[in-house]
Amino acid sequence: MTDVTQPDAPADLFDPLGVDWTPVSPRLASARLIVTAIWMGPLLLAGVALAALTQVAWLWSFPALVLALVVWITVLVPRQVRAMRYAERADDLLVRRGIMFRQLVVVPYGRMQYVDVTAGPLARKLGIASVQLHTASPATTATIDGLPPQEAARLRDRLASRGEARLAGL
């Protein structure tokens, strides 16, 4: 009887051995919470105003539901941001995210077509940017949100040069 287990197999599917993960900026959580407040604040105020003006008791369930959702998002978003990480390896880029539903995206440098760096007004105010990698397959595009602008520029340049080097060999 032979042992079919592999001693070099990673202990966790989403945490390969020997990978140094780089976390995203915690300011991403602030950006997402501000967007939540912008959307949920008016809903909460409208629900409270409607319930108070009509004096119908069951209408208070709507603002209570919105408030419960805001509390849930406030607890969940920082945990989600802490779970987001990326790693550069010799031949590919790894992007990991998720708490309950985990995702690990592996993008070989030779498959990259171009790299985008974006930052909206709120992201610029908070000092963060996003890097998006595009490949020939739309299913394998990877996005890294919440990077400091200097890191986003460094990563963009490094990924572009690595992608060109890998494509030159084809």
CATH class of the largest domain: Mainly Beta
Main sheet strand line-up: 1-2-3-4
Under CATH, the topology of the largest domain can be stated as PH-domain like
If classified by CATH, what would the architecture of the largest domain be?
Roll
Number of strands: 7
Order of helices and strands: EHHEEEEHEEH
In percent terms, what proportion of residues is strand?
A: 15-25%
Shape verdict? elongated
Which class do the helix and strand fractions yield?
Answer: alpha+beta
Radius of gyration: 21 Å
Level of helix content? 40-55%
Distance from N terminus to C terminus (CA atoms, Å) equals 43 Å
The unreliable regions are: none
Count of alpha and pi helical runs: 4
InterPro entries: YdbS-like_PH
Domain YdbS-like PH: 82-159
Pfam family, one: bPH_2
Transmembrane segments: 33-52, 58-77
How would you portray this structure in words?
This protein is of the alpha+beta class. It has two domains: 27-80; 85-168, Roll (PH-domain like), CATH 2.30.29. It contains four helices and seven strands; from the N terminus they run βααββββαββα. The protein has helices at 27-54, 61-83, 121-126, 149-168, and strands spanning 22-23, 85-88, 92-97, 103-108, 112-118, 129-135, 142-147. A four-stranded antiparallel β-sheet has the order 1-2-3-4. A three-stranded antiparallel β-sheet has the order 5-6-7. A hairpin with a 6-residue loop joins strand 6 (129-135) and strand 7. Helix 1 runs antiparallel to helix 2.
Q: In summary, what is this structure?
A:
It comes from Cellulomonas algicola. The protein has 170 residues and is an alpha+beta fold.
